[in-house]
């Protein structure tokens, strides 16, 4: 599976690269502007007009490729109802503070957040370059699955591509900083030193049954029992992974920060 996923990711990056070069009318590769690594040589991909479709399709395709056992163990069921994503993200004040999505999957929420940030920046008269810098600086995206964060990265780049082209046309050369993407296990405490104004997303809903769960062992249970929400600290407790996301999410907030979640 790893090989076919690498081919799939490389092809998506190649499409993005070709689209950038055609629309910016340049022979400069997107790789020279944004540090994403891929082998461009073996793909005869074409530029595309509908970048939104690229982001929609990538997540769907990847979800289809995940073996069912892994999908269940990691709760990898992406939010397909865009009206839920929209109604949640439309509630958020995205004008200040850091934002964390601890289980971003293919980036459905993240892309919507980026679109709203772009809208806000336009209203404030920010330049394309300042808008990109703001997004990259304020958005933190995490998922245990590295392929998922790579897809999120591609999807956000696709969403920001018109701004990248605009800045490139104005400045000739400029660079975009690497996005803040991590692959932490968010059931662990104290992963982020920053505090966030918003923690959002659709966490994994996976039940961990005390002794019966194949994903549970003595060491893990002892660690999980240290969480504040656990009442019987020495019990053989049944947990749901989402519980750790809620406690860790709340602990990651700054004083006036807000936690937003959905269960689908
Ligand atoms: C229900 S999906 C939601 C994905 C995305 N937020 C969405 O709405 O489409 C849950 C995500 O949590 C990730 N995940 C599972 N266990 C995790 C863990 N311990 N730490 C971080 N991410 C995890 C999975 O890889 C999956 O992408």
Structure report:
The protein starts with a helix and ends with a strand. The chain has a single domain, classed as Rossmann fold (3-Layer(aba) Sandwich), CATH 3.40.50. It has 264 residues and is α/β, with parallel strands linked by helices. Helix 7 links the parallel strand 2 and strand 3. The protein is globular and about 65 Å long. The mean pLDDT is 92. 47% of the residues lie in helices and 11% in strands. The protein has a 5-stranded parallel sheet with strand order 3-2-1-4-7, sandwiched between helices. Helix 2 runs antiparallel to helix 7, helix 4 packs across helix 5 and helix 5 packs parallel to helix 7. S-adenosylmethionine binds next to helix 5.
Core attributes:
five-stranded parallel sheet; Rossmann fold; single chain; globular; 9 helices; two-stranded antiparallel sheet; 264 residues; alpha/beta; binds S-adenosylmethionine
List the topology elements.
Elements: H1 2-23, H2 51-65, H3 68-74, H4 82-90, E1 99-101, H5 108-123, H6 128-138, E2 139-142, H7 146-171, E3 180-182, E4 196-201, E5 207-208, H8 218-224, E6 239-240, H9 241-251, E7 253-261
Parallel strand pairs: 1-2, 1-4, 2-3, 4-7
Antiparallel strand pairs: 5-6
The structure holds S-adenosylmethionine (SAM).
